[in-house]
Amino acid sequence: MDDGDLFLVTTRNEPPQIQQLRRGFRNVRLSDTNFLRSLARKDSDVAKFIAQATPPVPIRGL
Questions:
Q1: Is residue 40 a contact partner of residue 48, using CB atoms and an 8 Å limit?
Q2: How far apart are CA 31 and CA 13, in angstroms?
Q3: Which of 24, 31, 33, 46 is the most buried (most CB within 10 A)?
Q4: Which pTM value belongs to this model?
């Protein structure tokens, strides 16, 4: 964990993508869904990873 304590993983693509980030989460309960939602909105690196891992939503009628 020298490169960070947060691992982001997506298996949507081949090969799976993994990103490791330093965030200092030693005393954080990562099972707390409110914390995870907040992290996804407020941490630009996490938000970018999620955006790239999530397929675009199709627009009806196009």
A1: no
A2: 25
A3: 46
A4: 0.72
